[in-house]
Queue: 2 jobs
Job 1
Amino acid sequence: MKKWSRRMSDCIFCKIAAKEIPATIVYEDGDVLVFMDIGPIIKGHALVIPKKHYDPVTQTPDDVLAKLHLVAKRIAQAQMNALGADGVNIMQNNGTAAGQEVPHIHIHVIPRFSDDGHHWNWNAKKYDDFDEMAELAGKLRKHL
Ligand code: 5GP
Ligand code: ZN
């Protein structure tokens, strides 16, 4: 992959990784940066990004993805230990259809408190019948 494709000049998270625009940094190593989300779902919400530009998840190398998730796990533990979180949501959006706003892969690590009052709009649907569900599963299996 060419070098330029790892750094997008108009990408806000590349600019944060390059320290060209400020962010409140929680953790940093050679490959990964963690900073506070400017619009937290719950206060303490952090974003885990690779310093190099990758997007979406399906185009992100496995080793990079593994590192991101291992760091996300550490952030989750810190949210429980340091902030007293009772739970943590770890989320990762891909594509505008999925609600992604910044097209540089990032993992949301969101501390949750029993009394935080937040409810995801998790509106579970139903399949028409078992065959419909099985057909979709079959399509997926063929592409693995
Ligand atoms: P997405 O919808 O792409 O999964 O999430 C993007 C997240 O990035 C949002 O939660 C948003 O608040 C956060 N965000 C967008 N721009 C900035 C920024 O300039 N600084 C910080 N710290 N967070 C940002
Ligand atoms: Zn980027």
Note: Helices lie at 12-17, 62-83, 130-142.
Job 2
Amino acid sequence: MHQERIEAIKREIAKADAGNPEELEAYRINYISKKSVVGELFAAMRDIPNEQKRAYGQLVNEVKQLAEEKFQELIEKVNSSASKSKSTDLDLTLPPSNIHVGGVHPLTATRQRIIEIFERIGFNLSEGPEIEDDWHNFTALNFPENHPAREMQDTFFLEKNPDIALRTHTSSVQVRVMENQKPPIRTLSPGRVFRNEAISARAHCIFHQVEGLYVDENVGFADLKNTLYHFAKEMFGKETKVRFRPSFFPFTEPSAEIDISCQLCGGKGCNVCKGTGWVEIGGSGMVDPNVLENCGIDSKRYTGFAFGMGIERIAMLKYQIKDLRLFTENDVRFLKQFRSMV
Ligand code: 2NL
């Protein structure tokens, strides 16, 4: 009875095979583990009459040895077939799997293009802190004591008395340049600025600005006009027209708003330019003599012009982006459209 069962198991073991790790594990569970058929033969020992135990034990040990020998054989077989298939799976002639190359953010691309245009005509780059004191953000720039920008609802103040705030423009960087350098000064200050505004399609509390400053002897309004005309043609195309509208800033006198002919309709009038044919790209003016003096520059000898533009605004006009919020949402469907830019 036992003899028959043991012979049957021996035959099974002799026939057993495994072609992969799963089949090998199935064999181990069936013939090696405690709960295997061989394990069961050992467990049955307690029901064998004492005088037969010796002979039975000998038979079961033979089966156990057989099962283990077979197991070693199968391990070697599975291992060698695995290493064989590994080396054949590697096909060096296949094209590489998709490499996901990112792109430059449209604001970065726009900033780089603006920098490139001004660097070519002799402007260098300047940077400064995003957290500013009252002097560099307001007072040196000729802001009167009661100016609305100094109010809590327009500016993010970190401390009051003495006032410390997130800079509201990068003019503060240019004040620092004038304090530390002698004319001639030709500098461009791109950077992040902060204003306490409700977020909408047209406004954000964080945006990017680039300001330019040129201070030397005999710098006049014609230099301002020609420099910005050159910029507009380089940025938007050589057919672009520029117009200056009288305006007011505390830090420039006279001051002018800079408009370019509408990119979409070419000046005929459409919904982007609200039928006027012109769109605003920034502000400009001759540096107020008070500002030069505040920064230690002799306003009798030196004059200068300055301008400021929103980088978001330039990018929106150049790429026909309708909503400011797209720049910060990081929706890949938006960003992917600029993937080719470097
Ligand atoms: C705008 C207007 C402007 C300036 C910025 C400036 C800087 C110094 C002295 C005088 Cl240190 N002016 N910058 C001048 C006129 C306009 O920005 O619409 N920005 C987005």
Note: The mean pLDDT is 92.
